[in-house]
Amino acid sequence: MKMGMKWQLQCFFLLGTVLITFFIICWDARRDGTFYLQKALQTDVTHLKMRQEHRRHITRELCLANSSLNFTEKLITFDKIPNKALDHLIVDDRHGVIYCFVPKVACTNWKRIMIVLSQNLKAPDGAPYLDPLDIPSKVVHNSTVHKTFNKLWRRFGRYSRPLLHHKLKNYTKFLFVRDPFVRLISGFRDKFVKPDEYFYNMYGSTMLQRYANISKPPDSVQEAFAAGIRLSFTHFIKYLLDPQTEKEKPFNEHWQQIYRLCHPCQIEYDFVGKLETLDEDTEHLLNILGLDNYIHFPPGYKKRTAVDWERDWFANISVADRRKLYHLYETDFRLFEYDKPEALLHE
């Protein structure tokens, strides 16, 4: 009997030793895992901070008077920018944020975010929108729902400039950019590959007349599509390169150069995001703004225009025209550090 009890005690002691050892090992593993996770997160945040500093440094350096990049608008002061050219700067006074929106660079969803932040727009139930995805896209692009620098000028007149300077100094300013050639392809797909009555009437019919030798294009985009008449990417590029185009009216915002929409040499942005790193940059920016637990960026589109489509889209564009197009958008390529598309320019 005593031998049996002794054997049981030894078993219990051995089992207890094993359990305690296992617990210690698990605790150490968990502690080490937490440590390495924290280190990984710290490394990631450091990387994102360095990325932002690098992007902003490149822009600042190229905006200097003696840099290798020269363009007409480079050396003008902020006060010399026409008020109409400030209508892409959306202001949220509640959170101290200024966003310069660039069409075809996730601007629909960022405009949704700005509407939610400002709480200026009410949902059908009378309450402010809280979920960005609840805001219809047609509403998002209605200029009347956004408070812009241009509207501040219209409201305060000559007193607006000191107010704008105050906001630029104290608010967090950000924009998102994209490879310039890919942005052009995306804009063309969105406005001319799909039937868009407004863009057909404002631009498409003119392009067909001038570059497709169609003297009398159909009156509507539906009629044109039904007759098999469609604008080609080649016609679109010819339109952009034609000196007559901007003599008649400024570029539409969907193909206007980013530097002319957002004035990065006059406005020192705190954050420069890129569509190519949209998820990481968005998460980082929302964290900087202290909004990462309050608001979630809507998911991106699966049919986003890809960089590796460039060769196919430019197949029918002459090398000479590709080089002219690069020259037209070179400032965007260099200010936002996009690689020069050497393969396209030297085939």
UniProtKB/TrEMBL annotation:
Pfam families: Sulfotransfer_2 (PF03567). Coiled coil: none annotated. It is a single-pass type II membrane protein. InterPro entries: Carb_sulfotrans_8-10, Sulfotransferase. GO terms for cellular component: Golgi membrane. One of its GO terms (molecular function) is sulfotransferase activity. It is found in: Golgi apparatus membrane. One of its GO terms (biological process) is proteoglycan biosynthetic process. Keywords: Carbohydrate metabolism, Glycoprotein, Golgi apparatus, Membrane, Signal-anchor, Transferase, Transmembrane, Transmembrane helix. Its EC number is 2.8.2.-. It is an enzyme of class 2 (transferase). Transmembrane segments: none annotated. Belongs to the sulfotransferase 2 family. This is Carbohydrate sulfotransferase. The gene is LOC107576538.
